[in-house]
Specification:
The mean pLDDT is about 90. The protein contains four helices and no strands. By secondary structure, it is mainly α. Helix 1 packs antiparallel against helix 2, helix 1 runs parallel beside helix 3 and helix 3 runs antiparallel to helix 4. The chain is flat, with a radius of gyration of 12 Å.
Length: about 80
């Protein structure tokens, strides 16, 4: 963020990947909010069709499915489809 700036979508893309990596490595407490926040920021900044948004959304959907949070996964998909 220091190099790219606080409002950089590239920093948000990196945060989504970092959050997902942390979740996969057992640090869900730190990784989950990072993934959720970065996916939402990417979606607002770039729209649902952007590849960075789609990748972050895949991470988020996988997280929800792994935790049997199907309603949350459906909510994410509904937001994407409404845009």
């Amino acid at each position: 963020r220091r190099l790219a700036g606080n409002d950089s979508w590239r920093a948000d893309r990196a945060d989504a990947s970092l959050g997902w990596s942390m979740i996969r490595n057992g640090d869900e407490q730190t990784g989950t909010p990072l993934l959720l926040d970065s996916q939402a920021r990417l979606l607002r900044a770039l729209g649902p069709r952007n590849p960075a948004v789609q990748q972050a959304t895949r991470y988020l959907l996988e997280y929800y499915r792994l935790h049997h949070r199907d309603a949350d996964a459906e909510r994410v998909l509904a937001v994407l489809n409404s845009r």
